[in-house]
Specification:
With 112 residues, the chain is α+β, with helices and mostly antiparallel strands. It has one domain. 12% of the residues lie in helices and 31% in strands. It contains two helices and four strands. A hairpin with a 4-residue loop joins strand 3 and strand 4. The chain is globular and about 45 Å long. The chain starts with 31 loop residues before the first strand and ends with a helix.
């Protein structure tokens, strides 16, 4: 009931182009981005962009790694060790990886 009449964004199952590799060797190509925004007095801003990857199945719910991303450089910065004890132990294989299109995705999230 509390969400009745509220707007939501729904999308189909989306896959990245085969040229975008955002997972470590040995894992599926499934990954997801969490783009967290906040409305301020000066407008909507991106707070964080997180990459969830190294998935063991077709779903990002099976991810084995999470990373904080830099929107301006469109790159993976550091693991999400703060997220949970499990992610504190992950390897940081993907630090420095470029994520072309991240900035554009964030612009679209802000507009939404």
């Amino acid at each position: 009931p509390e969400y009745a009449g509220k707007k939501a964004i729904l999308s189909e199952f989306v896959t990245a182009p085969k040229t975008v590799v955002a997972s470590s060797e040995g894992f599926s190509t499934v990954h997801s981005l969490d783009i967290v925004t906040m409305r301020t007095r000066k407008g909507v801003k991106v707070l964080t962009a997180l990459l969830w990857t190294d998935c063991e199945t077709w779903s990002s719910h099976s991810c084995q790694a999470g990373y904080l991303c830099d929107v301006e450089t469109e790159s993976v910065v550091t693991p999400t060790a703060w997220y949970s004890p499990y992610f504190a132990k992950q390897k940081s294989n993907l630090a420095g990886l470029k994520l072309p299109g991240l900035k554009e995705a964030c612009v679209k999230a802000v507009k939404a």
